[in-house]
Design goal:
Layout: H1 3-23, H2 28-48, H3 59-75, H4 80-86, H5 96-125, H6 130-148, E1 160-161, H7 169-195, H8 198-208, H9 210-215, H10 220-246, E2 248-249, H11 251-255, H12 261-272, H13 279-297, H14 302-316, H15 320-328, H16 343-347
Antiparallel strand pairs: 1-2
Length: about 350
């Protein structure tokens, strides 16, 4: 993308991010989820697009960050086991200081916890390649949800009610919106910088030919784990925010929603164009708008509509929106196409 087009894109996104809650105050939570979708798609693309390892288990870190954050927040004022087992048997009353101290520490702990878990898991799953890696990571995500559901310290299958925000509903919505927007913004600019470094070249080399990359001296095992851990860190941060925004954590539908968010992040990256900086962002916007529209207007058929979009994307539109735009409007991306070799031009 040319510099002028990129600046214009940032201005538009900045206006959407800042003015969206002002003009659409009844949809603040939906717009906040949009930024979560953008983060999910862009972080999935670190391994799936830039490195060529299609993970179906990144939702594991979303849930891990959520639960780690919950434990940290609750432990500031109460015994976690008593809190999760009581469900009304004890009087819960977090002070304003306890709440905000807990949530900020919880978000940070959620990111760090997910980061550490990803390193341990990465040592096991990155011994796999291709479809075996995808299936292996999917198994990790499914197992994580089932495992957490058996741990009574974490509320088991009954879940955890999160501490209540000490303010009115409108203030609460704006607070969580800002958190979602800021974390997504930070992740985007961090990845923009990262892809321009030697690290970006290394993971692209792994995608193109891992054996040759390793023969050239690139420590592929290290790069793969670090790339996955970066994605896990941001997923842990946003998972911690989402758990508090929803107000209730449940293992299968909220923390580890493999069949929804776990698939959505892959679909969004593919729709926009994986392996690019802007493809996952654009894909997330288009996918989320379609999802919210079909949920409203085609209730009962929304899954059919989303499934159709995914099938069309995979079968007929594999390059994604950004790839298609690069073909028809290469000048928008600063690309030069030599048309002198076109037979039609040579005849003229």
């Amino acid at each position: 993308m040319t510099r002028s087009n990129e600046i214009l894109t940032y201005l538009v996104l900045g206006l959407v991010g800042i003015l969206g809650p002002v003009f659409f105050e009844n949809y603040i939570q939906q717009i906040a989820v949009l930024w979560i979708m953008v983060l999910m798609a862009t972080t999935w693309d670190i391994t799936g697009g830039q490195m060529g390892y299609n993970s179906l288990g990144n939702i594991t870190f979303f849930g891990a960050g959520m639960y780690v954050s919950a434990v940290v927040q609750i432990s500031i004022g109460y015994d976690v086991a008593e809190y999760t087992a009581a469900f009304g048997a004890i009087k819960v009353d977090f002070t304003e200081t306890q709440y905000f101290t807990g949530i900020y520490l919880g978000i940070i702990a959620g990111g760090i916890g997910a980061f550490l878990i990803s390193i341990l898991l990465g040592m096991a799953v990155f011994g796999l390649r291709g479809p075996y890696f995808a299936i292996g990571t999917l198994g990790v995500a499914v197992a994580a949800g089932q495992l957490v559901g058996t741990i009574q310290y974490l509320g088991g299958g009954s879940g955890i009610s999160m501490p209540v925000y000490p303010g009115d509903a409108d203030e609460r919505n704006v607070f969580f919106y800002i958190l979602c927007f800021v974390i997504t913004l930070v992740s985007h600019f961090f990845l923009r910088w990262l892809y321009g470094t030697q690290f970006g070249l290394a993971i692209n080399a792994i995608r193109d030919d891992e054996d040759k990359a390793e023969a050239m001296g690139i420590k592929t095992a290290t790069y793969k784990i670090v790339a996955w851990s970066i994605a896990a860190f941001f997923m842990g941060l946003i998972g911690a925010v989402f758990g508090n925004m929803i107000g209730f954590i449940e293992p299968l539908e909220v923390a580890f929603p493999t069949a929804t968010f776990g698939i959505f992040m892959v679909a969004m990256a593919l729709l926009g164009g994986k392996g690019t900086l802007w493809g996952p962002v654009l894909g997330a916007f288009v996918f989320h708008i379609i999802k919210e529209t079909t949920w409203t207007l085609l209730l009962g058929w929304q899954w059919v509509a989303l499934g159709t979009i995914i099938i069309i994307n995979i079968v007929f539109f594999q390059q994604g929106i950004v790839g298609w735009l690069q073909e028809i409007k290469p000048e928008w991306f600063g690309l030069t196409v030599d048309r002198s070799k076109n037979p039609e031009n040579s005849k003229a």
